[in-house]
Amino acid sequence: MFQSVSMKTTYEDVLEHIESGIMLFDEEGVLVFVNKQMYAFLELARHSLLGCTMTHLLANIQLSRLKRKQVLRAYREMVRKNKPTYEFIDEYGRYWRATLRSGEQMKGSYLFILKEISDYKLIEQTAYQNDSLAMLGKLSASIAHEIRNPLTAIRGFIQLLHPHLHQLGKEEYAKIILAEIDRANDIIHEFLTSSKPSAPQVSMIPVSALLKEVVLLTESEALMKGCQINLHPLQGDMIISGDAKQMKQVVLNIIRNAMEAITERSDDYIGKIEVGARREGAEVRIFISDNGKGMDLCTLDRLFNPFFTTKENGTGLGLSVSDRIIKNHGGCISVSSRVNEGTRFVISLPLIQ
């Protein structure tokens, strides 16, 4: 008898310390065991449920309205509809799987097991997203190749017709058509780059020379859009290793996004873009900040997702490609922003010692 009681205590201690939540109802429907994980999920005081039935549990005044709904739905799905498992999301955004064990093997008792599966769901969603993006990348690459060939032919014929249009006084038509073809080719190039970025052509890049060249390229465009670009003086020689063209593409893309953010802000103010870099240990931090319209948290969370854009004519590939380029160079991009205050990008890259 003493040994039987001792074994029962041991089993209860084991069940008390497992990660899953446990509720055991006997053949009369009375709750005879609940472990601390289940109490934590229900957000109830310890040992406040022992001896009650499911009806009493649902009527417990300490049980919140949301928890009552979750327990009731799980009970209906598994007991009434004879489903062995039931998955749901709680009010904190966590994923849970409830499992019911009953029948002859339980001798009339009902065992409810609750396990958090948020990590599994995240892995599942990431795998699904990666598969979708891989398929989309292949599809976009094949479509882009098919579109690029006729565009090249059209561009050639327009150039041949250019003298005739000039004689008719319609030369501007040829310029518009050529500009639109070039814009379409640029979009196709972005698609191809996002689906299969080219390997970096590695060279030594002085950070100061890189930023000076990019600022020089964008100064006139910024003035036309009512912006000022300020290049902060750099301290010391900072050199990174990588593809100069790809690095220039990343910085240009972020500066042009900053210009767009400034022009989209409605109030009257002077648009400013600050560009600079500083050494932090074995890395360089290149920063690009603006006082444009800023972004909310929802936009920030999706900012580097392929094909996500807030622009009317955007492709949603610029920042996605930039993020991939920086990662290929062993670095990372971080961003902070506030609505109607501005945005700050920081590109972190390893330095050549």
TrEMBL record:
PROSITE patterns: HIS_KIN, PAS
GO molecular function list: ATP binding
InterPro entries named among the record's database cross-references: HATPase_C_sf, HATPase_dom, His_kinase_dom, HisK_dim/P_dom, HisK_dim/P_sf, PAS, PAS-like_dom_sf, Sig_transdc_His_kin-like_C
Keyword Translocase belongs to the record: no
Domain Histidine kinase: residue ranges: 142-353
Catalytic activity: ATP + protein L-histidine = ADP + protein N-phospho-L-histidine
Domain named PAS: residues: 7-51
Known EC number: 2.7.13.3
Pfam families: HATPase_c, HisKA, PAS_8
Keyword Transcription regulation: no
Keywords of the record: ATP-binding, Kinase, Nucleotide-binding, Phosphoprotein, Transferase, Two-component regulatory system
Entry protein name: histidine kinase
Source species: Paenibacillus tianjinensis
Taxonomic lineage of the native organism: Bacteria, Bacillati, Bacillota, Bacilli, Bacillales
